[in-house]
TrEMBL record:
It comes from Helicobacter pylori UM037. The lineage of its organism: Bacteria, Pseudomonadati, Campylobacterota, Epsilonproteobacteria, Campylobacterales. This is Uncharacterized protein. It comes from the Bacteria.
Amino acid sequence: MLACSLISSLACLTPLLSSSMILSVLLLKCDFCALSSKFLLGF
């Protein structure tokens, strides 16, 4: 019984975790692009 609830909670959490990881990676890429453009514009 415990294993079933654990597996179901894991199945619910996995998409959330993957989507949040993808979002954080996108945010990091956006920050990196902004920083590099600032450097390019600064010089």
